[in-house]
Specification:
Layout lengths: L2 H10 L5 H14 L5 H10 L5 H18 L13 H17 L3 H13 L7 H32 L7 H9 L5 H14 L9 H22 L6 H18 L10 H16 L11 H5 L2 H20 L7 H31 L5 H14 L3 H7 L3 H13 L3 H9 L1 H8 L2 H6 L1 H15 L1 H21 L7 H13 L1 H4 L9 H9 L8 H13 L8 H12 L2 H4 L3 H14 L3 H14 L4 H24 L4 H21 L5 H17 L8 H14 L5 H4 L2 H10 L5 H14 L1 H6 L5 H14 L10 H12 L8 H14 L3 H17 L1 H10 L3 H13 L13 H15 L8 H36 L3 H15 L15 H7 L30 H15 L1 H9 L3 H31 L1
Length: 1038
């Protein structure tokens, strides 16, 4: 199709008539693969005589087609664009880019035309002119995206002459902007590449940097430069940034060359920005070209300083560069930065991003002696006239608080905002200063803060420095970890909270109430000497929750709006507090909330996939949505019918995110699957459809999530046993075997990586008792093979527990298979040795958990009931004695666990438990540990959830003598089996069936073992009485 005809089709695509528009779109679909179609679109885009709207349609069509089809995702897929067309596009697109004016010069013309022209434009003419200029901006951006696609795919192999075009046009004054624009895209391709992948960049730098430096120098020397100069300098800075981001090009190791660049950077950094033309609007001002230049230079200098000026670097050439930078430039940069920060003291203007970057430089300078010495004479000015004002509530905060409190809170918890915030950078500086240079500085800073508090308390209500009080509270909260460890401050924290923080919970100033709540949270774990003060703190935080109840739906709606935007531990903790407080009262809102969160999740995922800049925020918000869903599911755990209602809402998320698409949220998704398969009345077929997805991921890429996968797989087997056994399409038994055998036979798999595997085998045999005889030998063979290669005692214990489970499952069959495999003697010798091993403390070295001891008891006891033809007398004696010793150890451990639990319940009265917890936290801090990973209120944790299911983590490196665990929550098929009763009944059966054998066994027992046997028999009778009593109480309760 010729150009005029293509223009007609493109114009028809803009038609208001649906039929005409659809016909045009269909024509474009047919035309897009015809030869020279892309070239014709390019010609239309740059044709100044063509209608603007048509050019816009052409540019969009061109960009989208190139992005989708220039390089097929599948290497096997056939190329959709002929190579001849690709070649023509590469030859022509660069020339077309240079025909479009620079973006900022276009904006400058727009600004000048509207505000400076003495002959005012008519409204219509102004509107049309603005639209035209806007479209020119769009054309360049869209062509830029297409050039980026071409460079990423084709350079240097298919586009070797690109660099020559760039260097040639850098020599032409009329083409400099276009050349810089393309060079920026080219350099950015290699910004994050590894050293090997960056090799083509070295040639780019070698050929372009001398020309860039020359252009840069001439631009800096222009007197009264127009805004277009800033546009060009900014591009040069971006090219330099991408080229040095990971490695310094060898050309810059030449001191003369590097100095030439640094002289220009420092010149621009310390030179005041032009006054003329600077926008008065705050948003436009921070984006103004000359401030952008300052930002990029600060960016570059920070990167050079933090990555390449470290004297600890080992590379000889890098070390020489670091010494040169520290000696010749680091101090000069610091001086320029401090001069710029004077704007904060004098009320001048400095963009937030520039302040943030400068403070990052200062923070990194604190640890370097030479740099700190330069700062020290001005430290009071830095701390009290620059840093503290940045911590204080300001005009912009007030405007946002008044107009949109929701957005104010969101920004306060947005980690992406933190990356660019002057306030966050100021907090980081204070933290680093008191951490590395605390002597003198901490005392001075706290004295200053106390002065703020005193002036606030003494002032009348209309003269109170509310903004400074806000900043002082922020400072105190920021220094929390330091103050909790440092004398004399740690002893004064309680008084500080009572006098200066708690009163602000009732302040009429909203932002102070918010800040007081935050500070109270920071210090929530300190030890209160006066429990009335602790109660006062708790009252301040939660007393008003009863007043919340009437507006709970509206509150939750607003809260989850915030949750969908921000992923933050504090928000999750707050949600969990609300859920814990209101419990089942959340039930009426559970379905609606899950639906809202699911919608928000898909929106966040879509934004992260479509918008490169929003990728981080979108992904984090998506994680927040899933965690919020988990919290809701936990809150309704006593209402199983609600899970049936919620399931259809969650299934699309689960099906999508249990594939490789969900790797970033896999842990959170598995938590949801765990809840749905554990608390639902039964596991639906739709939920069963997730099993193949989980197993496929485990076999492919999800081995790092094996411990998390363990929980839902156990739920499937234990709560859906009939379906698990009966279904053959898919064959769940075989898929489980395939995964476990692959993992356990993998020679490269570390012992710690396969721990969940034997636990799953235990689940399999305990829940399928009597129904999977054909799997006994394969799993025994697999277990023994891995046992012989295992080094860690804990994994050995787990593998022996698998054997114990098979013996309890069917002792005759399991023992027969062990003899068939020729390993019976080997296995029992190892087992008995490990049962006898103790640590220096006298505690057992293996099988330390109650659950592990019980499994061993059941397995060994099952052997006692076998006939003499299976178990010789000598072996029976050994098994009997080992089981007795193990039962006594188990009995003592259960009794000790009950005593500890009773003591813990008593400690909860009078807040003693809180005090002990505080002591542990403070002790951790003193040891340099962090408590950031501590659980929140009822926080869902896959590990703790696994423990509820009986899966206890126990590392072999753990030398703790704590042999006790919270096994009272363990839920397995052997829960109802009392090992003492089982043992006594087995012995009684042996006595009845083979009196002679029983008599011989008893005669081999000395007084010690007879006493043990008598004690076990007595305890078995006590357990029968206790169990009967528990059943009666349970029946009466119903």
């Amino acid at each position: 199709m010729d150009l005029p005809s293509l223009v007609v089709v493109l114009r028809a695509a803009l038609s208001h008539a649906p039929e005409e528009r659809k016909a045009a779109e269909a024509s474009l679909e047919q035309l897009q693969y015809t030869p020279q179609h892309l070239v014709r679109l390019l010609q239309i885009i740059v044709d100044g005589n063509c209608d603007m709207a048509v050019r816009q349609v052409a540019s969009i069509h061109f960009k989208n087609f190139v992005a989708k089809n220039w390089s097929p995702v599948d290497p096997e897929e056939k190329q959709k664009i002929p190579e001849t067309d690709k070649s023509m596009v590469r030859e022509n697109i660069l020339g077309f880019v240079t025909q479009l004016p620079p973006l900022l010069s276009v904006v400058c013309l727009l600004y000048h035309e509207i505000y400076c022209n003495s002959a005012p434009l008519t409204f219509l003419k102004s509107a049309l002119w603005i639209i035209g200029i806007s479209l020119m901006v769009i054309f360049r951006a869209q062509l830029g995206e297409s050039i980026k696609t071409l460079i990423v795919v084709d350079y240097p192999e298919q586009w070797p002459n690109l660099l020559h075009w760039v260097t040639h046009n850098l020599e032409s004054q009329d083409q400099i902007f276009g050349a810089l624009y393309v060079l920026r895209i080219l350099s950015r391709k290699y910004e994050f590449k590894s050293e090997e992948e960056r090799i083509p960049l070295y040639q780019v730098v070698e050929e372009s940097f001398p020309r860039l430096l020359n252009i840069f120098s001439k631009l800096v020397q222009i007197p009264n430069p127009p805004i277009e100069v800033a546009d060009l300098i900014k591009l040069i800075c971006k090219i330099f940034w991408s080229s040095i981001y990971l490695e310094i090009p060898k050309q810059l190791f030449d001191p003369n060359v590097f100095n030439a660049w640094m002289v220009l950077f420092l010149n621009l950094l310390e030179r005041p920005v032009p006054v003329e033309g600077q926008p008065s609007d705050p948003d436009a001002r921070k984006s103004w070209g000359w401030w952008k230049v300052k930002k990029w230079i600060a960016h570059i200098l920070n990167r050079l300083y933090t990555r390449f000026a470290d004297l600890k670097i080992q590379k000889p050439e890098s070390k020489a560069f670091a010494q040169m930078f520290q000696k010749n430039y680091a101090g000069k940069i610091l001086g320029c930065h401090l001069q710029l920060l004077n704007a904060i003291r004098t009320g001048g203007y400095l963009p937030d991003r520039v302040i943030n970057l400068i403070l990052q430089y200062l923070t990194n300078s604190v640890t370097k002696n030479s740099m700190y010495q330069l700062m020290q004479p001005q430290m009071d000015i830095i701390m009290f006239e620059i840093i503290f004002p940045l911590l204080c509530f300001n005009d912009n905060d007030q405007m946002l608080w008044d107009e949109d409190p929701h957005e104010y809170v969101r920004k306060g918890y947005d980690i992406i905002e933190d990356l660019y915030s002057p306030r966050t950078a100021a907090m980081d500086f204070v933290n680093e200063l008191v951490r590395k240079r605390g002597k003198g500085n901490l005392q001075k800073f706290i004295h200053f803060i106390v002065g703020i508090f005193m002036r606030y308390d003494e002032a009348s209500i209309e003269l109170k420095p509310y903004r400074q009080k806000d900043g002082a509270l922020l400072a105190i909260g920021t220094l929390c970890d330091r103050l909790k460890q440092t004398d004399p401050y740690k002893d004064e924290l309680e008084r500080m909270l009572v006098q200066h923080v708690f009163p602000e919970f009732s302040s009429h100033v909203g932002h102070l109430r918010a800040k007081a709540a935050w500070v109270a949270g920071q210090y929530a774990h300190i030890k209160f000497s006066d429990q009335n003060n602790f109660r006062k703190a708790m009252h301040c935080v939660i007393a008003d929750l009863d007043e919340i109840r009437p507006i709970l739906p509206q509150l939750l709606d607003e809260f989850f709006k915030l949750m969908s935007e921000v992923e933050n531990e504090d928000l999750v903790f707050t949600l969990e507090t609300i859920v814990d407080r209101f419990g089942e009262e959340m039930a009426p809102y559970a379905l609606g909330l899950c639906q809202s969160l699911a919608t928000a999740f898909w929106r966040c995922m879509a934004s992260s996939e479509s918008d490169e800049e929003a990728e981080d925020t979108g992904a984090l918000a998506a994680v927040g949505c899933l965690r919020a869903i988990s919290t809701i599911l936990e809150s309704i755990s006593s209402l199983p019918h609600l899970y049936i209602q919620i399931e259809p809402t969650l299934l699309p998320i689960l099906r999508k995110m249990l594939t490789s698409d969900g790797q970033d949220v896999y842990e959170e998704v598995l938590e949801i699957v765990s809840y749905m398969t554990f608390y639902s009345p039964s596991i639906s077929l739709d939920m069963w459809s997730l099993w193949p997805l989980i197993m496929e991921a485990l076999n492919d890429w999800a081995i790092d999530f094996f411990e998390n996968i363990l929980v839902p797989l156990d739920n499937y087997v234990s709560r859906g046993t009939d379906h698990f056994l009966a279904c053959k399409d898919p064959d769940y038994q075989h898929s489980l075997w395939k995964a476990l055998s692959s993992i356990m036979t993998d020679q490269n798999m570390e012992d710690s990586d396969i721990v969940p595997a034997p636990k799953l085998i235990e689940v399999f045999f305990q829940n399928c008792k009597g129904q999977v005889d054909h799997w006994v030998e394969p799993y025994l063979r697999l277990t023994i093979d891995r046992l012989r290669r295992t080094e860690k005692p804990y994994l050995k214990s787990l593998l022996l527990q698998v054997i114990a489970n098979t013996l309890y499952y069917n002792p005759s069959l399991a023992l027969q298979k062990l003899h068939t495999l020729g390993v019976a003697t080997e296995i029992f010798n190892l087992w008995f040795v490990m049962l006898q091993q103790v640590k220096r403390s006298g505690q057992r070295a293996n099988f330390k958990r109650e659950y592990a001891k019980k499994v061993c008891c059941l397995g060994l006891t099952s052997l006692i009931g076998l006939p003499a033809s299976h178990i010789p007398g000598e072996a029976l004696e050994r098994i009997f004695k080992s089981t007795l010793e193990l039962l006594v150890s188990y009995k003592d451990q259960v009794a000790e666990s009950k005593r500890q639990n009773a003591a813990a319940d008593d400690d909860l009265d009078g807040f003693e438990a809180d005090e002990e917890e505080d002591e542990e936290v403070e002790s951790d801090k003193e040891m340099g540990l962090d408590d950031e990973d501590g659980d929140g209120v009822n926080n869902f944790n896959p590990q703790s959830f696994a423990e509820v299911r009986g899966f206890h983590r126990e590392d072999s490196e753990d030398d703790s003598d704590d042999d006790f665990s919270d096994d009272e929550e363990l839920q397995t098929p052997i829960d109802e089996v009392d090992p003492f009763i089982f043992f006594v009944e087995t012995i009684q059966a042996l006595q009845a069936s083979d009196p002679g054998r029983f008599q011989n066994l008893m005669q081999t027992m000395d007084f010690h073992y007879q006493a043990l046997a008598s004690g076990v028999a007595q305890h078995a009778e006590e357990r029968k009485t206790e169990i009967a009593k528990e059943k009666l109480e349970k029946a009466n309760a119903q």
